[in-house]
């Protein structure tokens, strides 16, 4: 499959929405404008920043960083920028859909799926380019700060595979309690804390 295989179904779909379609204009894969009613006179009077006046679609067989970069650059031309990628079959989907959508929302870029079926093709609008309001994840930020402050040392390396256990703050504190128990023998949580064990010693011993 090639990028050109996406062009015909996308152009037909856009034309069905009332747009006229042009290919390969100013490095844009597809440029769509309102159809025959949008004459030269109205074009001169139109708001140049009106998303309805210009739609740009960048196509790739698969989702890729290059495609996202292209779409981000096209935002200089219009707010109505979409990426279009191919999926096969009725159950085909993108890899890491949740992460892809989160990124596209932040870039205010839309997403179209060109679904190739035995009976033909279908265009699915997954995401429209909408203004994005950035929100702070205050609770997650607080958890990160607590995790950093709760560590005795930095014992992990960045980039570890997800299957490798981390030497988290909780794990470090648990090891601290275990070492004190080996050193002192039987000891109460209060006694362990007096020897330098963390405040969560009781909870650590209970887990």
Characterization of the model:
There is one protein chain. With 207 residues, this protein is of the alpha/beta class. It is built from 8 helices and 6 strands. It has helices at residues 4-16, 40-45, 65-74, 97-107, 138-149, 169-184, 189-194, 201-206; strands spanning 19-25, 28-34, 55-60, 81-88, 110-117, 120-127. Strands 1-2-3-4-5-6 form a 6-stranded mixed sheet, sandwiched between helices. A hairpin with a 2-residue loop joins strand 5 (110-117) and strand 6. The protein is elongated. The two termini are 54 Å apart.
Shape: elongated
The main sheet comes to: 6 strands, mixed
Q: How helix-rich are the residues, as a percent range?
A: 25-40%
Number of strands: 6
Throw out a few tags for this protein.
six-stranded mixed sheet; alpha/beta; 207 residues
